[in-house]
Amino acid sequence: MAFISRGFHGRRPSAGTKLPPGQYETTGFPVLSAGPTPRIRQDDWKLSVTTEAGKQHVWDWAGLMALPAESPTVDLHCVTKWSKFGTEWQGVSLDVLLADVETAAEHVLVTSYGGYTTNIPLADLVDGKAWIAYGYGGSDLAPEHGGPARLLVPHLYLWKSAKWVREIELRPSDVPGFWESAGYHNYGDPWREQRYQGD
Amino acid sequence: MARAAIPGRLGDRLRWRTAEVTGRRVESATAVTLTLDLPGWPGHLAGQHVDVRLTAEDGYSTQRSYSIASAPNGRSLDLTVQRTSGGEVSPYLVDELVPGDRLELRGPVGGWFVWRQQQTEPILLVAGGSGLVPLMCMVRAREAAGSRAPFRLLCAARTPSDLLYRSELRQGAPGLDTTYLYSREAPADSPRPPGRIAPEDLVRSGWPPDFEPTCYVCGPTAFVEKTAAYLVLLGHAPERVRTERFG
Ligand SMILES: Cc1cc2nc3c(=O)[nH]c(=O)nc-3n(C[C@H](O)[C@H](O)[C@H](O)COP(=O)(O)OP(=O)(O)OC[C@H]3O[C@@H](n4cnc5c(N)ncnc54)[C@H](O)[C@@H]3O)c2cc1C
């Protein structure tokens, strides 16, 4: 028998929006992070892609800015239950960054300034599904939202979109990241409500 | 940032359970504590939260997270909920639920923002508003475990009447220092004029960084952002500053 909360009516999402199960819509931009916000100057920022053979591809800020930019408009879904529709970003597609990288790896471990990590299948980072984002709504990305640059993988719960991204490591085997080793789901598809291990 | 391992029992933890509301206590003008009875509750660590799911008659349902306020105590669990005006879930929990009602939840969730009784280092707890809930759980768990770990608690609230757990905190506990930081209106005998949290508050009432305390900061995003940044500026290692934001 389905459970009913006595006297609960609820607020329905605005017409035309589709919410993943258990989520609610917010117009603010809440923040989720496990510790203090690291402050990284653009001049000190570097991003590396490391292959399973140990080969490193490194971009500094000027190098990132020299790459072709895109302006994706995407919906965000945070495991803490909020969803935000139609957010506008500026960044570089991972397809561009990975174009010259030779790899047979299927797994990726992303590491941030500050030590945060998250794991993602490589297939989820290519084919126009992921960006290194440095602009939000036409401005520089604020530090509390991951600036100077963060990963953006909007089809997965937002903890996969590592803020303050520093390294993308291509790996032959999967290894759980920070929240993934704390009981959160290894993949994190909001539409299948994969919040925690076993979901 | 260290790995955040959590104890097992995953399958059991993740199951949706039906709790019965057995008690309702008014904490302030805008907050109540609900006591829940949860047969088979696997226990929790101080700082963890549960996911609450509300379902309307037509099947529409939504979820929110709420921190656990009570120290592990068999199948009984306290949640303290602050009413957010215009909110979908908190006004229901605060104003509508009465003893005898049932509530769906699952958990406990979270393995990073926790205090374990094996920790012996000094602890700094900094709470903004209802961010006090998981930190109060740590204070209670410390006492329940007979821990001697030195705790310092900084409670920020708008006015004295917004403060949660007033009488319990006034009573205090050996080895626990509590400081109140009122932002809008302070009692007449308060040595500190009302105002937002400032680095001086953390210097005066926190721990020196070379004592290597673990710091837990919880509350609204802006409060947590500022406090965590001050702690790092004062010399606390970022990996010893754990944060939870109520969004
Ligand atoms: C890990 C975690 C632990 C938490 N622990 C606790 C806890 O112990 N105690 C606690 O009280 N809270 C806690 N929270 C916060 C809690 O989960 C909810 O976010 C909170 O209760 C608000 O939910 P709501 O449904 O009432 O508001 P929501 O409906 O989610 O509204 C969110 C915001 O939007 C505004 N808003 C919504 N609808 C409208 C509208 N129609 N018009 C104007 N403004 C609107 C609200 O004012 C509010 O600011 C925790 C959150 C997290 C992530």
Strand percentage of chain A: 25-35%
Total domain units of chain B: 2
The topology string of helices and strands of chain A comes to EEEHEEHEEEEEE
Q: Structural class, judged by helices and strands of chain B?
A: alpha/beta
- Look at the structure and give the mean pLDDT of chain B: 93
Characterization of this structure:
The complex is a heterodimer of chains A (199) and B (247). By secondary structure, chain A is mainly beta. Chain A contains two helices and eleven strands; from the N terminus they run βββαββαββββββ. In chain A, a hairpin with a 4-residue loop joins β4 (73-77) and β5 (82-93). Chain B is α/β, with parallel strands linked by helices and 247 residues long. Chain B has two domains: 17-109, Translation factors (Elongation Factor Tu (Ef-tu), domain 3), CATH 2.40.30.10; 123-246, Rossmann fold (3-Layer(aba) Sandwich), CATH 3.40.50. Chain B is 20% helix and 31% strand. A six-stranded antiparallel beta sheet of chain B has the order 4-3-6-1-2-5. Chain B has a five-stranded parallel beta sheet with strand order 9-8-7-10-11, with helices on both faces. The longest helix of chain B has 13 residues, at 132-144. Chain B starts with 9 loop residues before the first helix and ends with a strand. The chains are: A mainly beta (199), B alpha/beta (247). Chains A and B meet through loops of A and α1, β3, β4, β6 and α6 of B. The complex binds flavin-adenine dinucleotide (FAD). Flavin-adenine dinucleotide binds at residues 49, 64-67, 80-82, 84-90, 130, 133, 244, 246-247 of chain B. Flavin-adenine dinucleotide (FAD) binds next to β4 and β5 of chain B.
